[in-house]
Structure formats: structure tokens, C-alpha cells
Amino acid sequence: MTRMVRPKLMVVGAMLGCHPGHVPSFGEALGEHLSRRGYPVVLTSARRQRLSRLTDMTLTLLRHGRQTDVQILQVYSGLSFVIEDLASWIGVRLRQRIIMHLHGGALPAFVARHPVWSRRVLRRAYVIVAPSPYLKNVLTPLGFDVRIIPNAINLSLYPYRHRRAVAPRLLWMRTFHAAYNPQMAVRTFARLKEFEPLATMVMAGQDKGMEADVRRLSREYGVADGIRFAGFLNDEAKIREGSTADIFLNTNRIDNTPVSVIEACALGLPIVATRVGGISDLLTHNESALLVPDNDDRAMAEAILQLLRDPDLAARLSAGGRRIAEQCSWDEITCRWQDLLAEVTETVPGQALGEGVA
């Protein structure tokens, strides 16, 4: 029986899903799914503090790097880029083939601010992968060829409920951080309450220092009694809240291809979202979502009222969102990563590869 050779992989990035209050990163999930398919995988690092994480990643690269064929590097902007610079530099010197996987709606602005640094680091990649055309379109003019592989979810975990006659039960689910503009959700809800006094909204997510301000804003607008702050949601709680809601709000000011939006699509929630970053590459206005201008709470409230008054529209968005989610299932996405790994490693000498599985 012919044995299929599997390259040895190292996934490098912040692997914080093992800690309470943290969602597993894409890198963690990708490593798990590739491991299930027989790839030897090392993940680094689960350290919370950035300097400690940098040290752990460096030691792991030095310890296991020469036995690693492919480094899958999770690339973010900001201070994280220092880690990505060092990890890719070490990887090149250890003769790893590096797949850089881009994340975050802030990356285009970062590349514009630091063009020389960004190009120097990105040139170390054997292949660059992005989850949407949004990031591809930024790097293509700089001479980089970027492959698109969408973000993924475990589709079977998300029970689809087709919405048609929707009620004003809203769900906002992101981190309480300025990039996600939770204040817009409160202002939108206050406008909605003028027409729908029985409207309710759940606001859920990890607090990054803004939840107290958002709670205070809800009291100032006189809508605090209609908002429930649910905190960080694990998978079970996320599905429970999403299954009982009828409309999903995405108020981000910066975005790429958010998994939370794909999860809402999977559950059949009609989505009202700001047209920022990669959102318009993921969602189509009037087919899978209603898209409104950035920070325009009046337009968002009007879009919600349109959904409440037009069952055919709600039904179209519900079905359209589910079709998007079906294209982002882990079964589909893992196969695409396997194809990419086969391409990346096909010219690597056989003796440098792991034995793999049958």
C-alpha cells in the first residue's frame, strides 16, 4: 500500500484558545484539522504575555525548526509584526517554506505606514494566503501574489433556522474594543426603540476596556433595560444566543472576514453590517446582508426596520447567508489547505519530509 508523505508543519501565532475567555485562533483550528488528516503539527505559542510568547516561539523554532518543512505563520499588524518578522527570519535560515496567513482589517493601514518593513518581511513567504480579496487587493499592487482561502467554521455545530417574519431581537457579538464600535449598536438600538418599544438586544463578547462605557451610554440613551450584556460566549452559549435572536448587527469600523459574521450566516440570522474593509467581499447587499455606511446608526436602524417590515427580504438574507457559510465549512477549507501544502512541498526532497500516514 502506497504511503502518502505528509510534510511536518509548524503553525506560529497566538494560540490562546486554551485560556478562559479566549476564542481559539484560526491557526489553532487549522492545526487541529490538519493533524486529524495525518500531518505532524507543532503549535506555538500559548503564552499570554507578548514578550513571553515571543521567547517561547523562538525557542520552539530553534528546537523543532530543522525538522519542520513548512511554517504556517499567522500575520497580524501592530506589535505582533515584530514576532512575525523574527519567526520568518528564523524560518528562512532553517530552510522552512513559509506560508504567511494574513489576518485583520488593520493590516492595509499598517502596510501603508511601514512599506519597507512590510515588504521585507512579506518577501520571505513562499506563499501568502488571505481570507478575502480585501487583503489581496492591497498587496497585489506591491508585487505579491496572494491566494484566497476563506476563514472556516464547524458548520455542523450551527443549526440553521430560516428566518422570514423576524422580530426585533438583536444580537451584537464582538469584542468591546474601539475597532468594533459597540457604541454604534447602542445608538442604533435607541433609534429602533422609538418605533419598536419591545425591541431587545444582546451584546456579547470579551471586554477590552470599553464595556463600562457602553453600559453607561445605554443608560444615557434610556435603553439599558432592553440590553442584556452576556459577556464572553463559549461555543454552546454562542449558538444558544444566536438561535434565539432574529437579526445580527456588525458595527465594525475595521474588518476583514470576521468569523462571527460567518457564524451568524450559518445560523440563518439576517445581517445588518457596516460596509467596511472586507465585509463587502464576504456579504452582498440585499442578497446576504444589508450594508450601511460606517458609523451611520440612522441607516442601520432604518435597515433593521426594513427587515421587520419585509418578510421576503428577511427570508432572502437568511438563505443567502447560509449559502455563504456552507462555502466556509472546515471540510471544504481543510481540503484547500491540503492542496496548497501539496503544491508548496512538491519540490522538497522526500527525505526531508515526515513519514505521514497511509
Write structural notes for this entry.
The protein has 14 helices and 14 strands. It is an alpha/beta fold and 358 residues long. The protein folds into two domains: 4-152 and 329-357, Rossmann fold (3-Layer(aba) Sandwich); 155-326, Glycogen Phosphorylase B (Rossmann fold, 3-Layer(aba) Sandwich). A six-stranded parallel beta sheet has the order 3-2-4-5-6-7, with helices on both faces. Helix 1 links the parallel strand 2 and strand 3 (41-44). Helix 2 (50-64) runs parallel beside helix 3 (80-93), helix 7 crosses helix 12 and helix 10 packs across helix 13 (311-326).
Descriptors for this entry?
single chain; 358 residues; alpha/beta; Rossmann fold; 2 domains; six-stranded parallel beta sheet; 14 helices; 14 strands; elongated; disordered C terminus
